[in-house]
Amino acid sequence: MLHIFKEGKKGGPVFVLLHGTGGTEHDLIPLAEMLNSDYSILSIRGNVQEGGMNRYFKRHGEGQYDMEDLEFRGKELLNFIKESADKYDFNTEDAIPVGFSNGSNIAINIMLREESDIKKALLFAPLYPVDLSGNNKDLSGAEVFLSLGKGDPIVPEDESEKVVEIFKERGADVRHTWVNGHSLPQEVAMEARDWLNK
What we know:
Elements lengths: L2 E4 L7 E5 L10 H7 L4 E5 L3 E3 L2 E3 L3 E3 L2 E2 L1 H22 L6 E6 L1 H10 L8 E5 L18 E8 L6 H13 L3 E8 L5 H11 L2
Parallel strand pairs: 2-3, 2-8, 8-9, 9-10, 10-11
Antiparallel strand pairs: 1-3, 4-5, 6-7
């Protein structure tokens, strides 16, 4: 997968940056550097094209996921993170997904996989309208920062609440905050930084 790797402090955490629809691997690097400049960065471009825009998985429409493709792409992305850990010499349990919108959604998918050992994530504007009745992933010990939108034109508030519950029901320690719309304002980035470095 197309990506950028920037090495930080050896043996430290690694941000896995996952852009929103239409983004690139460059979009979230300034955010990562602001969150903690000592951490390494693995920023990955989505492999799927939708009307010329990069995404991490296919969909049939807004909030209507192609479940088969989501399953395939989630596995592909997690495998790529594992391969990158070998290549760049870091531990997968030190990987911290930082996602916006579509990037947050694929991050949720990989965290819910039994073979994933990711324990921390910062997810902005997520949406995960997926039937998880068969998923019993234990996320106790995981810490998740969620930024959710009031009046978000893409994500209804009850769907935002559902994302909080996905993590809480599986035992994760969840901090969530609300912003206006489908956005990542400076003040929530600062709040995420304080949470991360507490």
